[in-house]
Specification:
The protein has 48 residues and is an all-alpha fold. The chain contains 2 helices and no strands.
Length: 48
């Protein structure tokens, strides 16, 4: 099976998922909201 062409990849975004994953209000695309940070905080090492 080969790689798909970009025009063959379709995302099924609903109104609910669009609102959930919207990145408005963040300065950078990599910025995290509090709820997102809470999910990964325990996976990071403590500051030394």
């Amino acid at each position: 099976m080969g790689l798909r062409e970009p025009d063959e990849i379709k995302m099924a975004w609903t109104e609910t998922t669009q609102a959930q994953y919207r990145r408005e209000g963040l300065e950078y695309a990599s910025d995290l909201r509090d709820a997102e940070w809470a999910l990964i905080a325990s996976l990071t090492s403590e500051r030394k």
